[in-house]
Amino acid sequence: MQLHSLNDQVFPEYRGVFGSLYSKVSLLTLLAFPTSEAVLSVSERELTDKIASLCMSRSDLWAKEKAQKLRDAALRNPFQHNRYKSHIFNLEILIKIVLQYQEQLSQIANEIDALAKEIEEYKILQSIPGIGEKIAATIISEIGEIDRFKDAKKLVAFAGIDPSVYSSGKFTASVNRITKRGSCRLRHALYMAVQSGIRDARKKKTTEEIIPRNKRLREFYDKKREEGKPFRVAVIACVNKLLHWIFALLKSGTTFQDIE
């Protein structure tokens, strides 16, 4: 929030130049050109070259488009001349702090991934289409030892995917929401896995054939939709199904077998 606030006092129009203010290329560009004066003091070619050097994975055309947007933002900026040098100084310090913080987080994430790859459960979970490295690591960290759970229903309850039943006197609700009493991080990871699994993808880069990443999960999802279930209800049902698969696979130590 402090970075946002300072940037609004120096170069508020900069926010729309990149997709995220906090992306690495955005922060490095802002560090190099923290004011509209700094942007307008160089040519568009120099801006393009600088942005291209900060994000070499992107095309020259992309860098040129960003340079144009940056220049346009500088021209629109209400603060063409900054009287308070302290604002610029503090902005530069904050950007460097955020960059260092991001670098440390990246190193920690790499260490976690390296440790996770040594765990057998990590490989088992990744055998399920839709579950990648980050999701697998999150699921493992949240579930812990699978032997803690007597059966799949206990795991479902731990994730907070089990339905809550509201009753009062002789009344029992016919429509119930999930309890959400468990791990929200686990639920989020499972939702992401389901949405990735049921999404269509090309079978191979060399073919136009489109298939779901996880055929078994997509069939189950389609069945729920055909039954008239709303999208969210169908997705929650898929999360429940996915948890049952995860429980069975981790208990047996086997990998997932999709439909051929």
From TrEMBL:
Gene3D superfamilies, alphabetized: 5' to 3' exonuclease, C-terminal subdomain
Entry superkingdom: Bacteria
Any one Gene Ontology molecular-function term assigned to this protein's record: DNA binding
SUPFAM superfamilies found in the cross-reference section: RuvA domain 2-like
Coiled coil, from the record: 98-125
Entry keywords, A to Z: Coiled coil
Pfam families, per the entry: Transposase_20
All residue ranges annotated as the Transposase IS116/IS110/IS902 C-terminal domain in the record: 123-199
GO biological process terms held by the UniProt record: DNA transposition
Protein name according to UniProt: Transposase IS116/IS110/IS902 family protein
